[in-house]
Amino acid sequence: MDRAPLLRSRRSLVRFRAGALTISGVPAGNRFPGVESRDKSRPSGNRDSSTAEPDLSSGSERANVTRQTEQSSRQRRNGQQSKHEQLAAILQLEPVQDIVQRIKDDYITGRKGYDPQVKLACLLVMHLQNIPCVTRLVHYLRSQREMREACGITSVHNVPSEDAIYRFRNRLMQFGYASDLASSLVDAARAADPDMGTDVAVDSTDVDAWCNKRRKKDRLRDPDAAWGKRLGSTGEHDESYLGYKLHMMVCADTELPMAWTVTPANVSDSAQAVPVFEAAATQHKWFGPQHGMMDKGYDSGEIHKALEVDFHCHPVIPLRDMRKTKSGLLDGH
């Protein structure tokens, strides 16, 4: 009896099972435990992985679940809150409840859809777990029962879709809910700690524009972005990037953000120092720092004068050496 066809069929079956585990399991190098990863090079057939519970037949999946369970147990032993406990505590804060109620009151007639608190909880999970995009967020919620229940989602089939989360996030920014929520949380932190905001620090960071950087009909794909300079990955030379700058003020003690502005990447840091202070004074009635700390890029007479006269704040800024000539030598030497 020729056993070659039988061996070939067995090898095909092994390859098929290995492919199924690759599709339903989690690769060892995945940065986000529990997020399902689909191998696009293999056909998935009629299997609907978007609504299925995680397949624990994979060794890597079992290892991820075991690791998360041990981490939660270790946090409980050390008196620390787990991620889903932190989420539940955030959702119970009065400023969060007020914003959720405002969104419900401003709701336009039509199909109700998902509860605003559920969608807000999903966005909070995205930041708590450092998930980079909404697509991975949806997969994560479908595979993590405890975090899903902390969001108020009763079933894997009730996880909001990607489009629903995108629309809700745009609504938060478009109607000012996000900025109002941030201001309310800062005010609540200030009420708990009266010393908050005594010392503040201001700096900027670069934000890439996620678009095609090539020109089309003499226009950039993102018309609001601009080309700017930032320190390269090697730390030795500057590199160009297309995007924006986030100018932010934080409390030097708690490191909580207090105010910020967003500009195209070609706007200098020093030009936004005073606007950031003005934004903080507008959003928080109690704002009155004693010291404002910045790097030497903010060393200018206008900033020193504005902080001391308008905000009664002592600037803590390293002075730039303005005596250097073009040859690099000091005047008079």
How many strands appear in the DSSP assignment? 6
Please trace the helix and strand order, writing H or E for each element: HHHHHHHHHEEEEHEHE
Supply the number of helical segments: 11
Distance between the termini: 99 Å
Q: How many structural domains in the coordinates?
A: 2
Query: What low-confidence regions span 5 or more consecutive residues with pLDDT below 50?
Result: 9-54, 329-333
Mean pLDDT: 77
Instruction: Name the structural class.
Output: alpha/beta
Shape descriptor = globular
Q: Strand portion, in percent?
A: 5-15%
Please state the CA-atom Rg, rounded to the nearest Å. 26 Å
Helix percentage range: 40-55%
The biggest sheet amounts to: 6 strands, mixed
